[in-house]
Amino acid sequence: MDISSMEYQAGMETIESDVLDEVMLRSAAYNPYEHTLADAQDALLKDCPDVSDFGALLSPAADSILESMALKASRQTKRYFGNGVRLFTPLYIANHCVNHCVYCGYNCKNKIKRGKLMPDEILRELEAIASTGLDEVLILTGESRTQSDVEFIGSAIKMAAGLFGAVGVEVYPLNISEYAFLRECGADFVNVYQETYDVDMYEKAHPAGPKRCFPYRFHSQERAILGGMRGVSFGSLLGLGDARRDAFSAGIHGYFLQKKYPHAEISLSVPRIRAFENHPDGGVHGVGERELLQIMLAYRIFLPFAGLTISTRERGVFRDNVVGICATRISAGVSVGVGGHDLEQKGSEQFVISDPRSVSEIHEMLLSRGLQPVYTDYIRC
Description:
By secondary structure, this protein is an alpha/beta fold. It has one domain: Aldolase class I (TIM Barrel, Alpha-Beta Barrel), CATH 3.20.20. Helices cover 38% and strands 11% of the residues. The protein is built from 14 helices and 9 strands. The chain has helices at residues 19-29, 37-45, 51-57, 66-81, 119-130, 150-161, 176-185, 199-205, 214-218, 220-226, 243-260, 289-302, 316-322, 359-368, and strands spanning 84-92, 136-140, 166-170, 189-191, 231-234, 265-269, 307-310, 329-331, 372-374. It has an 8-stranded parallel barrel, surrounded by 6 helices. β6 (265-269), α12 and β7 form a beta-alpha-beta unit. α1 runs antiparallel to α11, α3 runs antiparallel to α12 (289-302) and α4 (66-81) packs across α12 (289-302). It is globular and about 60 Å long. The model has no long low-confidence stretch (mean pLDDT 95).
């Protein structure tokens, strides 16, 4: 494709912001392999670690103090979140996509079953989810403005807001006025993941489609906040680029935006590449669970107030072990195809999940670990 990954495409709103330059400058200077064990130990002793300390905690040198990091992360989690772990589930309402993302089951070149829920089907799915006791739902689509326009997404949000205390959206990046419209419909949170902050890798991974534009995607969270959203989420797809560098970039992206908009709720997610239909290996990611754990612990220590989500991309035993230590949100009763909660799936799954447990099973797991399953949104309650 001739369009540069730094070039805006038609209809993409630009904003005046220095956050991209700040993050890219720090990211370019960061080398996780230059930090020493002493750097990591010093960082762990600080009450308020800075960006450099965060980098040290993400370094290979910090692997030998993982237990100490876990102890500090656990103390931070209990201090700011108590024993509560919030439960939610996603609802995919469409999987049509115009992007050619090489790592994703929904990419436009992948020959899968495409589908879209009709309004009555969306309501039926939402009611089925609500019947499990969940009070938070995440509405998702593939990235297609024609098949899933803003009005279609907004109508789904309105239905969800009538049944749930908190509604999140994970859709294609929008302009400020469009985020404001979804906020008026009842959306609280926006998830947008940069996938990788390595611009060269980003360009290779997104050969075609609107998602190819790196800066428009990067500024999505800021546009969502300017559109009135209560909270935004950050993350990179671990294994697409250098996982430690990408985790560092995602963390400081959230950090600098939190400093600029202190009223906004910041959360992080740590997805690893997964297999998907027609690609059973999902691509080589090379990110082990120990490295994933280190990234999560570093996030909790550096950003103690931030929410931290662990998804069904990960094995159940890993998810069970990180809740209470560093993770504060966990998905349950998950379907990553279009529908699938009450209806038969109308479209293929985005990726293969690792933990298919129901809401009640996750609930019982949390209780068995001395944790409190949280269903009610603390603002809307």
